Amino acid sequence: MRILVVCGAGASSTFVAQRVRHAAHEQGLAYTAFAGTERSLPIDLDAADVVLVGPHLAHALERIEQDAASRGTTVVLLPSDIFTDRDGTRTLALIRAAVGGSGGPPPTAGAAAEPPD
Predict the structure, then answer these.
(1) pLDDT-based confidence at 9, cuts 50/70/90?
(2) 36-71 residue pLDDT tens
(3) Who wins on pLDDT, 10 or 97?
(4) Which domain holds residue 74?
(5) For the whole model, what pTM was predicted?
(6) Number of domains in the chain
(7) Is residue 44 assigned to a domain?
(8) Is residue 18 over pLDDT 80?
(9) What is the CATH number of the domain that holds 8?
(10) Nearest to 33 by CA among 50, 46, 12, 45
(11) Does pLDDT of 17 surpass 90?
(12) Which of 11, 25, 62, 96 has the greatest number of CB atoms lying within 10 Å of its CB?
């Protein structure tokens, strides 16, 4: 899954993207996350499955959702306290909830498949 994190200038989105990448890696998920800006959104949107919108861009959410809908891209408005999510796990949970948990469960090392009942 390709996750675009959008903010005004790209600084805070860079930190969120980095934390999401780390959390996804820790959970064994093949997710990528990259930062973008409101200005770069029309170009960046083509490379994203999910767009995380910084809380300070709530005013632009409707426009972003319209642009994303034509591409089948999910949009998530991040809560105002998202920057306190230091390890990215809360942000990752928001993403998984928005897309219905797609991406599958994290793999477990050495786990054998259980026989059906």
Answers:
(1) confident
(2) 998 999 899 999 999 999 999 999 999 999 999 999
(3) 97
(4) 2-98
(5) 0.82
(6) 1
(7) yes
(8) yes
(9) 3.40.50.2300
(10) 50
(11) yes
(12) 96
Q: Which two tokens stand for residue 57?
A: 């861009």
Q: Distance between CA atoms of 51 and 17, rounded to whole angstroms?
A: 11
Residue 32, classed as helix, strand or coil, is: strand
On the question of pLDDT at 95 being above 90, the answer is yes
Does residue 28 form part of some domain?
yes
**Tokens read off for 23:** 């959390």
Give the contacts of 56 (CB within 8 A, at least 6 positions apart).
7, 8
Bridge-based pairing state of the strands 50-53 and 74-77: parallel
Residue 87, CA distances (Å) to 16, 17, 37, 55, 94 in order: 9, 11, 22, 18, 13
Q: Does residue 104 lie within any of the structural domains?
A: no
Domain annotation covers residue 116: no
Tokens of 16: 């969120």
Place of tokens 């409707």: 62
